[in-house]
Design a protein that fits this description.
By secondary structure, chain A is mostly helical. Chain A is built from 10 helices and no strands. Helix content of chain A is about 65%, strand content about 0%. Chain C is of the alpha+beta class. The chains are: A mainly alpha (about 260), B mainly alpha (about 325), C alpha+beta (about 130). Chain A: Pfam families: PaaA_PaaC.
Chain lengths: ~260, ~325, ~130
């Protein structure tokens, strides 16, 4: 593998992991506060899965790409070195927002891991095969909720339509292209953001139709980019401070 | 987690005692004989009014304790240090919600709906374990809760799992299995601090000092003042006295604290070699009753947070309500 | 709320006053579904508890995490509690004599005794301990 490829893979894995780490933290804020106990449990499991995926990805960085210890890298890194998209940084808001974010993000995640099952980079290929079943549940869960709530009357339908409109520019930001992308697409490591975006649209569109949600014209949406290059919303910094708070009490200690 | 050994008494006992007079003596005798033989009571069985009332109250309070118990630890999820601790903590808090779910179901088999129980929690009519009315101020608090309070809960729950009501026993069987993970992860995190740097040791000792009194309160007032009747013991609703459970807890866990070079803030705490029982300074029981009645440092916040969650989730629940559908309580 | 909480998450929520009355409506926690899990292929589905859900589809989604997140599980069933038909517990006496009806049970047939008796009859009488010499 060339140095340029190594850098490009590192960049890809870092942004995937940072997305999952931050959204896993956000979604775990609902643990104990969900709309009904059964959903609380389900949503919490998926938050755990996301943090678990992030951990697995950071371990690939550490073991295959001379990366740092995952705990140090995840919890002590400077804000500007984070590559997560803005969608995952937003506070939990109301449940309509959190559900719509979950729906849009988890379909994007599913498409990404699905494409990685054919990756020429062995560790990502193995991981994506391992996570297939988890992701299937996540999208099943998200689809069921979106469709049911949209068919359950005006208030819930309107809430989800509004959430969709809020989330879409942020969700388009998931697919912010990377500069070194062709290093990876050329080597069949992954298909590139544009291809993933199209597959994602193909997957979410039938669900939105089924739910009678109105998809705004994608051409009119300006994606919220910047996250992949270290530019973040004001919401990320306080969360990172919280995440590292205990570590910083005594950086020499094991916790 | 957490039954808490103490079933809080409600004010309306007298009225129900009168109703109990109407219990058919023959059925009562058969019911008591079944329990004496070690058989379980199932939801469709005849049962004395007072048995149903006390069990509903016990299981409901246990469920509320799980739901409220998820709050002081849930707050530490974002701050939990490192992947392993963080995932274990989310899984643990999730289990608590899961335990609440199992317990509400068990209580529902006795005829009171989950909605009614939630309303009684929110209005303050129904109680939960006092121990959750204290704040978890540092990461060390999380380890103390995870180890010692879960340990206390296990003592209580293992006892209750031998009780007479089938659905409660079945729920507790699964709960106890999951609690063993809670206890182990709590112990592991606590040992990490106890054997760590001076900063870590100091924060752990501080947490132990603050939590000791609430832990001593956990099993409820001493037997000499506790009002629980012989009847509840005979019916296998209450399985062990408060002092018995407290002694069992001290016997198993005080040595595990001392062996780590930590201290507990009671100079009198020791095991009497002659009686084999632990002796200790009585915790402040007036404070215990004050906290039950809403006067603890976090009572207000805990209920406010639950109200926030119920209010936030209401549109979701109401959107999918189907009042016309036939509904029965859980069958088992 | 006037006081800052020790809980950063709580500080992010906009909590109302504790005096606001909040009442959950009856039925707001939906209907009740019994859950059956299959631990491995070839095993029976066994009853493990129940979930509250608005319909069978979400009941399955919920059951998966509440009853399938630990230990081995390969499949789940859900059925509305209201759709379960059961005997009254008082009818337990219908089953009471099962154990006496040994003609339905392998233990009710002493084949070896008869064989041993037959074998013993043609030869010498069996020893007192039942074994042949």
């Amino acid at each position: 593998m060339t140095t340029a490829q190594q850098q490009a893979i590192t960049d890809l894995i870092t942004k995937m992991a940072d997305d999952e780490l931050i959204l896993g933290h956000r979604n775990s804020e609902w643990t104990g506060l969900g709309p009904i106990m059964e959903e609380d449990i389900a949503f919490s499991s998926m938050a755990q899965d996301k943090i678990g995926h992030a951990w697995a990805l950071y371990r690939i960085l550490q073991e295959q790409l001379q990366g740092q210890d995952p705990d140090q890298f995840a919890f002590m890194r400077a804000e500007a070195d984070f590559k997560c998209c803005h969608l995952v940084e937003m506070p939990i808001g109301t449940y309509d927002f959190s559900l719509m974010r979950h729906f849009l993000f988890d379909h994007a995640e599913a498409v990404r891991y699905d494409s990685l099952q054919q990756s020429s980079f062995e560790p990502l290929q193995q991981l994506s095969r391992k996570l297939k079943g988890e992701l299937k549940y996540h999208t099943l869960h998200a689809d069921a909720w979106i469709i049911q709530l949209c068919r359950a009357g005006e208030e819930s339908y309107n809430r989800l339509q509004a959430a969709l409109e809020t989330c879409l520019p942020l969700a388009f930001g998931i697919f912010e292209p990377a500069k070194e992308e062709q290093e990876l697409t050329g080597a069949n490591i992954y298909p590139g953001e544009r291809a993933l975006f199209e597959r994602w649209m193909d997957n979410i569109y039938p669900v939105l139709v089924n739910a009678s949600l109105n998809m705004p014209d994608p051409a009119g949406i300006s994606p919220q980019f910047g996250g992949r290059y270290g530019e973040h919303t004001p919401h990320l910094r306080p969360l990172l401070q919280e995440m590292g708070e205990v570590f910083r009490l005594d950086p020499t200690a094991n916790w | 987690m957490y039954g808490g050994g103490y079933i809080f008494d409600e004010p309306n006992r007298k009225q129900l005692r009168e109703e109990q007079l109407h219990d058919d003596p023959e059925k009562l005798a058969a019911f008591e004989e079944r329990i004496a033989k070690g058989e379980k009571i199932e939801p469709g069985d005849w049962m004395p009014v007072e048995y149903r009332r006390q069990l509903t109250r016990l299981i409901e309070q246990h469920a509320h304790s799980e739901v409220i118990g998820a709050l002081p630890e849930g707050t530490w999820i974002t701050r939990a240090p490192g992947f392993k601790r963080k995932l274990a903590l989310i899984a643990k808090v999730q289990d608590e919600v899961g335990h609440g779910q199992l317990l509400y179901n068990a209580a529902e088999t006795l005829g009171k709906s989950r909605e009614a129980m939630i309303n009684d929690l929110l209005s303050g009519k129904s109680k939960y374990s006092n121990v959750f009315n204290y704040p978890a101020m540092t990461w060390a608090d999380v380890t103390v809760i995870g180890f010692l309070i879960d340990a206390a809960a296990i003592v209580n729950q293992v006892a209750n799992a031998k009780g007479s009501y089938g659905p409660y026993c079945r729920a507790l069987e699964r709960i106890c299995y999951e609690e063993s993970f809670h206890l182990k992860q709590g112990h592991d995190a606590l040992i990490e601090l106890a054997t760590g740097t001076p900063v870590q040791k100091a924060m752990l000792q501080d947490a132990l000092n603050r939590w000791w009194q609430p832990i001593m309160h956990f099993f409820g007032p001493p037997d000499k003042v506790s009002q629980h009747s012989e009847k509840l013991m005979q019916w296998k609703v209450k399985m062990a006295s408060n002092d018995e459970m407290r002694n069992q807890f001290l016997d198993a866990y005080v040595p595990k604290i001392w062996e780590l070079g930590l201290t507990l803030p009671d100079a009198h705490l020791h095991k009497n070699p002659e009686t084999g029982r632990w002796e200790y300074t009585d915790p402040d029981w007036d404070l215990f009753f004050k906290v039950i009645n809403g006067g603890g440092p976090c009572n207000q916040e805990r209920l406010q947070v639950r109200k926030w969650a119920e209010t936030e989730g209401r549109w979701v629940r109401k959107a999918l309500m189907k009042p016309e559908e036939r509904k029965v309580m859980p069958v088992a | 709320m006037s006081n800052q909480s020790y809980d950063p998450r709580v500080n992010r929520l906009k909590l109302g006053s504790t005096d606001d009355p909040i009442k959950v409506e009856e039925g707001e926690n939906w209907n009740i579904y019994e859950v059956f899990h299959q631990e491995k292929r070839g095993a029976h589905h066994e009853h493990v508890g129940c979930v509250h859900a608005p319909d069978p589809q979400l009941a399955l989604v919920f059951a998966k995490e509440q009853f399938g997140r630990r230990k081995k599980c390969v499949n789940l069933w859900v059925v509305r509690s209201a759709d379960i038909l059961a005997f009254d517990l008082e009818d337990e006496d219908m089953f009471a004599n099962n154990m006496e009806k040994t003609y339905r049970d392998a233990s009710g047939f002493k084949v070896m005794e008869k064989i041993n008796k037959f074998k013993g009859a043609g030869k010498q009488p069996p020893a007192k301990d039942g074994k042949e010499k």
